[in-house]
Amino acid sequence: MEARSSKRKREFSPGTVASSISLPIAVPPLPLAETEPGVPHSKTPPSLTSDNDSTSKSSCRSPPTPSQTRSDQNTFTMRDERDILDLYATDYQPVWAAGIEFPGVIPEEISQYLYEDGEQVSLFIGPLSSLFWLEGVEELEELIRDPAYVLTDEYRSIPQGSPRLWIVSILFEEGKIPATFMDKIYEEPVRRQASALSYASFIPPNLTTTPTQNRIQDVFPFARLQSFPPTISCIKTKLKGKKNNRDENYVDLMNTFINSLGGNLLYKGLSRPSIVSLASLFAPLVSSYTLQNEFGPGLYATSSLKYALDYAGPDGVILIFKDVDFRPLVKIDLAGEDWRTTVDYWTGATISNVSERVPALWERSDILQGQISVKDLRSKQRVPGPDSQVVGVSYAGLNAFASALHMIIWLDSSR
Fold first, then answer.
1. Are the beta carbons of 301 and 265 closer than 8 angstroms?
2. At 213, is the secondary structure helix, strand, or coil?
3. Is residue 57 in a domain?
4. What is the DSSP annotation of 291-324?
5. Which end of the chain is more exposed for a tag (fewer CB within 10 A), N or C?
6. Domain identity same for 284 and 170
7. For the purposes of burial, counting CB atoms within 10 Å of the CB of 160, is it exposed (0-12), middle (13-18) or buried (19 or more)?
8. pTM of the model
9. What pLDDT band is residue 290 in, cutting at 50, 70 and 90?
10. Whether residue 170 sits in one domain with residue 89
11. Is 235 in the same domain as 340?
């Protein structure tokens, strides 16, 4: 984990577009709220002007008071997402954002996530404290300050096309954010058995660094056979480089395991606990915090291993599907107006006459296919990006994916 570095006041001129390496847009972290008595501060909240100050040159809000953030010990005050340029005016460490010039020299903790070919996969890259500020949930920084919790101010990336608070849900799945804090963010209680989470956080002990064919129930004791193949190739791999360099590990995975597979491949990156859940019930988790997936609820896969790595994180899992048979299924290719309407609807944008604009065959669809969005941080608009995603949205679609599961790769960043 990365230790927190000191924050310095920065001046930023908003006219320029970032460095030679351009990545997907990142979300800015929110300023930290005051802690409850007895919890030590590790930093002072940034001094920002009030919303009511007509002389303010920033759209940033004033730091919330305890009454605003802790009026009820069982809830958090959800704020709007903040602007990346406003982050650069605070004392928070800067976040790399797609299409925005980074203020200063890009540190190694960020450059490790950038691809040498300049492909934009991430929306934001930065320390968790800054990402929390951008997302409007700076109360979570209490978990970083308090040594009783395992969360540190590590650098993480947020993928293009991901829903708001994606990083929060991933950290919860990794066991780094307690369910009690998730309950305060979302309306419904979020509970998970500690014993199940503990088991799911480890790589299965029978795996090696050489691909071996395994029955699904030999890897996941409580798996259901469903539509899985008789055996699946399974492997664990140690991430390379001092900082788990994303480009280096992408090249290594392609050369060592994937280039020899042949066929049409789709990838899915997810956390270790999520694959345990999928092995038992091959269906996506549907709740209030997954509704904002840009094509709606479903099982998402992509043709881009780079995107899958971003979603998996440093200690996640990559699923590889080979030659998925879509022929007997109702498949919708979302493009043009259909893509725009679908993404706007599921991400909460305002749409007029929405019932008249639903894509044809939507009610009978098994598979959705379309481009992953990239976000223009200045206009706040999502537009189709260069990489595609395929989504199973029916039982038939999910079965098609399950029957084509060819390989599972566990990633390991430990040293």
1. no
2. strand
3. no
4. TTSTT-SSEEEES-HHHHHHHH-TT-EEEEEES-
5. C
6. no
7. buried
8. 0.74
9. low
10. yes
11. yes
Number of domains comprising the chain: 2
Specify the residue for token string 């639903």. 358
Which two tokens mark 310? 């971003």
Check the CA dihedral 106-111-117-123 and report its sign: negative
Q: What pLDDT is recorded for position 288?
A: 58
Q: Are residues 248 and 387 in the same domain?
A: yes
214-233: pLDDT as tens digits: 999 899 888 887 789 999 99
Distance (Å, whole) CA 294 – CA 12: 32
Is 198 part of a structural domain of the chain?
Answer: no
Task: Check whether residue 355 and residue 260 sit in a common domain.
Answer: yes
Give the whole-angstrom CA distance, residue 245 versus residue 306.
Answer: 12
Find all residues with CB under 8 Å of 210, minimum gap 6, and list them.
Answer: 235
Q: Which domain holds residue 154?
A: 84-187
CA distance 358 to 37: 52
Q: Is 14 helix (H, G, I), strand (E, B) or coil?
A: coil
**CA 272 – CA 253 distance, rounded (Å):** 18
